[in-house]
Amino acid sequence: MRLDQAYSPFHVDRRRDERLALALPCRIVLGDGAPFAGETRCVSPDGVSVASAAPVLEGEILTLAIAEIGVARGRVARFVEDGFAVAFERDGREERIAALVWLEERLDGRRAELRAHPRGLPPPATATLTVLDEPPEIAPVAVADLSFGGARLVSPLRPGLGAPVRLGGLPARVVRHTPDGIAIAFTGP
């Protein structure tokens, strides 16, 4: 079902957790690898509402990189007026809770101070890094900080500058080596 066919203003809200109304930039990667830009409307440990023109289908599995929160996989649960809602997979729930608590304390009612592409230092979050060489290497990494444009990762892997990688499902390239890992820039829109 497409976005323009499925929106209903009479949706019954069945959320279990309180959501924070946050407008954070995010990068959406569909199941076929196509990247799209978006912005969160509200976020909870178990889901997010995203404003985006990404052509998603109900039930589609996708990956999101949300500034200040981290990388998460989820399934399109329903459509909303300007986008869609995603139910996150259970993996990473504790990290999302910690990031949301950290964000709420940091913002303390000052949500207008968020930059267009904030790069923050949320509580430790983990993800999977895939180096797309032959043969590919896969390793868990700690996301030290994350923005709409890229991330700094704590990782034993040291691919060369410019090497194509994936953080979760997000395509990127290595732009810098750091003492404890690498910095990547996301590729695509």
Describe the structure concisely for a colleague.
With 189 residues, this protein is mostly beta strands. It has two helices and twelve strands; from the N terminus they run αββββββαββββββ.
Write up what this structure looks like.
With 189 residues, this protein is mostly beta strands. The protein has two domains: 3-113, Beta Barrel (Thrombin, subunit H), CATH 2.40.10; 125-186. It has helices spanning 3-6, 93-107; strands at residues 25-29, 35-44, 47-51, 61-66, 70-80, 83-88, 125-131, 137-146, 150-154, 164-167, 170-178, 181-186. It has a six-stranded antiparallel beta barrel. A six-stranded antiparallel beta barrel has the order 7-8-9-12-11-10. The two termini are 24 Å apart. Mean pLDDT is 79; it is low at 1-15 and 109-117.
- Write out the CATH superfamily name of the largest domain: predicted glycosyltransferase like domains
Hey, roughly how much beta strand do the residues contain?
35-45%
Distance between the termini: 24 Å
Topology pattern, helix = H, strand = E = HEEEEEEHEEEEEE
**If you average the pLDDT, what whole number results?**
79
Q: Can you give keywords for this protein?
A:
189 residues, Thrombin, subunit H, 2 helices, 44% strand
Secondary structure elements and their pairing?
Layout (H helix, E strand, L loop, with lengths): L2 H4 L18 E5 L5 E10 L2 E5 L9 E6 L3 E11 L2 E6 L4 H15 L17 E7 L5 E10 L3 E5 L9 E4 L2 E9 L2 E6 L3
Antiparallel strand pairs: 1-2, 1-4, 2-3, 3-6, 4-5, 5-6, 7-8, 7-10, 8-9, 9-12, 10-11, 11-12
